[in-house]
Automatic annotation (TrEMBL):
It is an enzyme of class 1 (oxidoreductase). It catalyses: L-allo-threonine + NADP(+) = aminoacetone + CO2 + NADPH; 3-hydroxypropanoate + NADP(+) = 3-oxopropanoate + NADPH + H(+). Its EC number is 1.1.1.298, 1.1.1.381. Keywords: Oxidoreductase. Belongs to the short-chain dehydrogenases/reductases (SDR) family. NADP-dependent dehydrogenase with broad substrate specificity acting on 3-hydroxy acids. Catalyzes the NADP-dependent oxidation of L-allo-threonine to L-2-amino-3-keto-butyrate, which is spontaneously decarboxylated into aminoacetone. Also acts on D-threonine, L-serine, D-serine, D-3-hydroxyisobutyrate, L-3-hydroxyisobutyrate, D-glycerate and L-glycerate. Able to catalyze the reduction of the malonic semialdehyde to 3-hydroxypropionic acid. It holds the Pfam family adh_short. InterPro entries: NAD(P)-bd_dom_sf, Sc_DH/Rdtase_CS, SDR_fam. GO terms for molecular function: 3-hydroxypropionate dehydrogenase (NADP+) activity. This is NADP-dependent 3-hydroxy acid dehydrogenase YdfG.
Length: 276
């Protein structure tokens, strides 16, 4: 898949942030869209805007992919509408911010359900259809956090490590099938990831979602298995984590996150965690 014009692309988490940016960039390149998100109002707003700006054909599906039957209900809806997906963009993701014990257990479990379980289910359900047609592609949105353990983002980074390993394995399994699989590893991006928490990143240190989306699609068209759509220095950091001992990278990551105040981060209105 080197061109996007005329394909049907499904984007999860499409109601805001990076998912919305993927939707807009795919529409700009001529794709038909199936946009999926949990928030119906926000999803319809994005769909209407994309239709108006690009004249794109857009279908929306409201779905809670973290729910046990979320993916199966979505796939059934696609089958009822006789929609075949050419490109799956597994973008939906979530993560608890701050000390592990500072967030309720369900926040961590929800992250695992969405970032790992739903992504795996969708890749299996739609990937199987693609392989049967000998055509298609899957982009799994991971993160530069996938390359090392990250204290104060412990669950999130661990789920993204799964996405990295899973994607590289699928890319090899599907080689020669007509279906390509790629992981995208953005760094800090201007999205709502920290929304509702006391944590924040300075805009000067974040990438624009529009830039990340465009670079991701360029890399996929070029045949990459891993894409690094953020600023250049972040890719160098991922190389370093493959060379240095994991204990070293974990300690360095912990120091950096403490410097960012993530050891004190918590949901707005929740008790302030004790320093560790």
């Amino acid at each position: 898949m080197t061109r996007y014009s005329g394909i049907t692309a499904l984007v999860t988490g499409a109601s805001k942030g990076l998912g919305e940016a993927y939707a807009r960039e795919l529409a700009r390149r001529g794709a038909r869209l199936v946009l999926v998100a949990r928030s119906g109002d926000a999803l319809r707003r994005v769909a209407d805007s994309v239709r108006e700006e690009y004249g794109a054909e857009v279908t929306t599906e409201v779905a809670d992919l973290a729910a046990p039957d979320g993916v199966s209900r979505l796939v059934a809806a696609l089958d009822r509408r006789d929609i075949a997906i050419d490109l799956l963009v597994n973008n939906a993701g979530a993560g608890a911010v701050g000390p592990f014990l500072g967030s309720p257990q369900n926040r961590h479990i929800d992250s695992v359900e969405l970032n790992i379980v739903a992504l795996t289910r969708l890749s299996h359900a739609l990937g199987g259809k693609m392989v049967a047609r000998s055509s298609g592609g899957i982009i799994n949105v991971a993160s530069t956090a996938a390359f090392q353990a990250m204290p104060y983002l412990a669950t999130y980074a661990a789920t993204k490590a799964y996405v990295l390993s899973f994607t590289e394995a699928l890319a090899e399994e599907f080689r020669g099938s007509g279906v390509r699989v790629m992981a995208a590893h953005p760094g800090p991006t201007t999205t709502s990831f920290f929304e509702g928490t006391t944590a924040a990143l300075k805009p000067a240190f974040t990438d624009r979602p529009e830039t990340v989306a465009a670079r991701t699609l360029d890399a996929f068209a070029e045949g990459a298995v891993n894409a690094y759509p953020g600023r250049t220095g972040l890719r160098a950091i991922t190389w370093a984590t493959r060379i240095l001992p994991r204990t070293t990278t974990t300690r360095v990551s912990g120091r950096l996150n403490r410097a960012l105040g993530l050891d004190r981060a918590h949901d707005i209105g929740a008790p302030v965690p004790e320093p560790s």
